[in-house]
Amino acid sequence: MEEQENIRPEGDTSPAETPVKSPWQLKKESWYDKVPLTLKQLDIIIGCGIAGMIILAIVIALDAMGVF
């Protein structure tokens, strides 16, 4: 009998298992919902931005060392 009480349907989650999201997380998700892009497209855009910042940092460092 005890084993049957522990069995729950797959879609059933208790409130203790559901992660609580912070207001900031909810706000960010609402912003992303307004952007008509897929997650893959957003990842590509973010990756290009990070790569650009790295290249910019290298160029600044080379300029400071007098290479340019």
Plain-language structure description:
The protein is mostly helical. The protein has 3 helices and no strands. The radius of gyration is 23 Å and the shape is elongated. The mean pLDDT is 83.
Summary keywords:
single chain, mainly alpha, about 70 residues
Along the chain, the helix and strand elements come as HHH
Alpha-carbon Rg, integer = 23 Å
Structural class: mainly alpha
Shape: elongated
Contiguous low-pLDDT stretches (5 residues minimum) are none
Alpha carbon gap, first and last residue: 78 Å
Helical fraction equals 55-70%
Query: What is the typical, i.e. mean, pLDDT?
Result: 83
Q: Estimate what percentage of residues fall within beta strands.
A: under 5%
Report the biggest beta sheet as strand number plus sense, adding barrel if it closes: none
Q: Give the tally of β-strands.
A: 0
Contiguous helical run count: 3
Topology readout:
Layout lengths: L1 H5 L16 H12 L4 H26 L4
Short description:
With 68 residues, the chain is an all-alpha fold. Helices cover 63% and strands 0% of the residues. The protein starts with a helix and ends with a helix.
